[in-house]
Amino acid sequence: MPMKLIGATASPYVRKVRVVLAEKKLDYQFVPENVWADDNRVADSNPLGKVPCLVMEGGEAVFDSRVIVEYLDTLSPVGQLIPAQGRARAAVKTWEALADGVVDAAVLARLEAVWAQRKDSERSQAWIERQLGKIDAGLQSMGQGLGDKPFCSGNALSLSDIAVGCALGWLEFRFPQIAWRGEYPNLGRLLDKLMLRPSFAATRPD
Predict the structure, then answer these.
(1) N or C: where does the chain have the smaller number of CB atoms within 10 Å of the terminal CB?
(2) Which ranges carry the GST N-terminal domain (predicted)?
């Protein structure tokens, strides 16, 4: 029985895990779940009711995308995505934290704007603007950090690029009004290059 990944195809956090699974050539079963549906079963495996959630062969669950991808990188020697130690490891994990932070802010802004259980009079435009400011700052930092390098960390694909690519892809999916490609063409080139990889092409959010 292969590992099971519980998640939603639209989630950038789930996509990050799916890309890592593909790049590591690991076998798994994808179990789609909508965490907003009243009858979802996510809490059976993750008491927080969040995805992604990785259920291993013995039934033990691992959750939070950062924990999952770190675990997955140890399962196969194919294409190491996270350096084992030192400053190189810290650099990759910092890139991941930056990219995930952009997604976190984007998710909060979207929920404030569209969550059906909140009345329009209860929505805070100031809160939305605060989150959009974090997105702008994160994009600026990613653009400066990438510069003219082929990848975010070193000269080969790493978790840095996967996290950044998933963040950028989700912004294009949910926030097409943010014209980040015009301001940071290097990030656009990186995403376009990543989309040529089967792992990214097969996990485009929908």
Answers:
(1) C
(2) 1-80
